[in-house]
Amino acid sequence: MRFDTLLIANRGEIARRVIRTARAVGLRTVAVYSDADAAAPHVREADLAVRLGPAESVASYRNVQAILDACRRTGAQGVHPGYGFLSENADFAQAVADAGLVFVGPSARVIRLMGNKAQAKTTMQDAGVPTVPGAQGCRNDADLQAAAGRIGYPLILKAAAGGGGRGMRVVRSESELAPMFRLARSEALGAFGSDEIIIERAIEQARHIEIQVLCDEHGTCLHLGERDCSTQRRFQKVIEEAPSPAVDATLREAMGEVARKACAAIGYTGAGTLEFLLGADKSFYFMEMNTRLQVEHGVTELVTGLDLVEQQLRVAQGEPLAFSQSDVRMTGHAIELRLCAEDPAAGYLPQVGRVERWQAPPGIRTETALENGCEVSPHYDSMVAKLLAAAPSRAECIQKLRMACQRTVLLGIRTNLAFLERCLAHPVFLEGGMTTGFLAQQDMNDAYWRREPSAHALAAASLVLAGLAAPGTRSRQAGMSAPAALWLAPSFQTTATSLRGLGAAAREVRIAAQAGDGFEWTPTGEDSQGSAPIKLANLRADGDEIGFALDGLFRRLTWVQPGADSVWVQDGADAWRYQRVVRFDRAGDAGEDRLRLLAPMSGKAIALPVAVGDVVEPGETLLVMESMKMEMPLCATGAGRVARILVDVGAQLSAGQVLVELEAA
């Protein structure tokens, strides 16, 4: 069935990506939105837009009837689900078809078949596809213990009804099995509406390789090569690339043929992905199939020259694929970085807040819905942008992306931008030796991953908060009649902490005018024992950029000042928030015998495993919260007795809110 109007049942950069291609092939586009997204870029860019509901949550975008009503109101005959939300919902695909519309994706039957990991695994086994040894259908402790005994440790628990790392846990010993099983079931139920868990042998030192497939309604099934998605944190992809450093032409053809065989066996149509684990011995095992476009589809586009959204649209309208397997070529190398609002040093804790300054890097493909002043909320995934680059070689591609990280501006929320740049520069990554355990083996508080602010960053914060970075400043001393002295402290979030020791130590800095046109800048330690004065000269301030020479080295940094007493400063890929603080004597702090658990961000309390009077040990879970589609256990930082619990299960939490108080042991 041909269509001329396409509704995109998604939001943000996903909707923008589909709109871009749909308009290029001559389709009229329809966006949908919640009240919170009324002014979002995807709404402005579509030809028409329809309000779904008031909620600032996934509920609006999962309202099937509201989406079908939007198709009726706008005359949309086709529906593209994007990725996420309803993209792998068989009931939605069936409802679209029942309404006489075209669903841009495989049939509801295939989505349902492959959407359940247990069913998918059985189907692939019947088709002769190699699978990871495991068990399914475990719903109680007896089944669990029996299955684990057969499989052996280490093993991995997975949500049968979904992916993305949610409901996924590695179990290394029998003592961990029951508590991990309960946590996996709870997270799976919350994320996918089903608590069914499958168990598989954990294949360690493995790579995560996925094969992109493209099939039409006329029996043609093609593979478009592989992507290496081994660089992961918490079972969620961080960096993807094509081709894989570990896959040669022979292995590529073998895995591709298995993928084509699997697609033919189930009657697949459209774009999809089969995900495999690749062992060190080059053996590979089917994990799951994604019956939709993947977040990382762009790297395949960059090395094949194909527009996968365009191919989806053509297949959905009954067209045969215009090329054969022998026409598919992978040229050069492409890498994608997932830029996320999260703090890697705090266990990749998601972050929320206002984006004060955003500027995409030049020279690469960037997909995002970020703009100055937008809010990153706790209701959606933490990924806020994708940075993609292509080059003739892998080494050139890495260097191109490293420079892109240093030229990206994102201030106002903490992100993983510097972490991504360090991933690219890590010897293991440079050599192409990443496995799925690579990042799990790293200490994010190590100096390599979390560097101290540079002297230029601290000096820039000093100049801004001392009022010396006004636009148009050119080495003027701005009428300074006396030295400026202020105390600055970098602001860090933390998951749980005592009243004492919050954040980082304050430092006193002094700025004094020198004879001529420069300054003398002196940073001190918390004990007021500082370094020698440093010459600061050639000050240039223009808009959100400040440049100056510190001890003869000139550098430019980006800054934004959200309030009179705080400033964000970005130096390369690193960014810090400095606050002007008043230094107090801590000797008389009240309540120093109490430990307080604070909410690290907005979210909801979903479990309270302790009660008033309980004695807890360091690391014991006090509360489980949910935010950005993830469950996060918040743990005690010291031993003590639970003195007060200040929230109930189901309560909405605000960042910094006191949740539990302990009497210190």
From TrEMBL:
GO terms for molecular function: ATP binding; ligase activity; metal ion binding. Its cofactor is biotin. Keywords: ATP-binding, Biotin, Ligase, Nucleotide-binding. The keyword Signal does not apply. Residues 121-317 form the ATP-grasp domain. Pfam families: Biotin_carb_C, Biotin_carb_N, Biotin_lipoyl, CPSase_L_D2. CDD domains: biotinyl_domain. Residues 2-444 form the Biotin carboxylation domain. Residues 590-663 form the Lipoyl-binding domain. The keyword Glycoprotein does not apply. PANTHER family: CARBOXYLASE:PYRUVATE/ACETYL-COA/PROPIONYL-COA CARBOXYLASE (PTHR18866), METHYLCROTONOYL-COA CARBOXYLASE SUBUNIT ALPHA, MITOCHONDRIAL-RELATED (PTHR18866:SF33). This is ATP-grasp domain-containing protein.
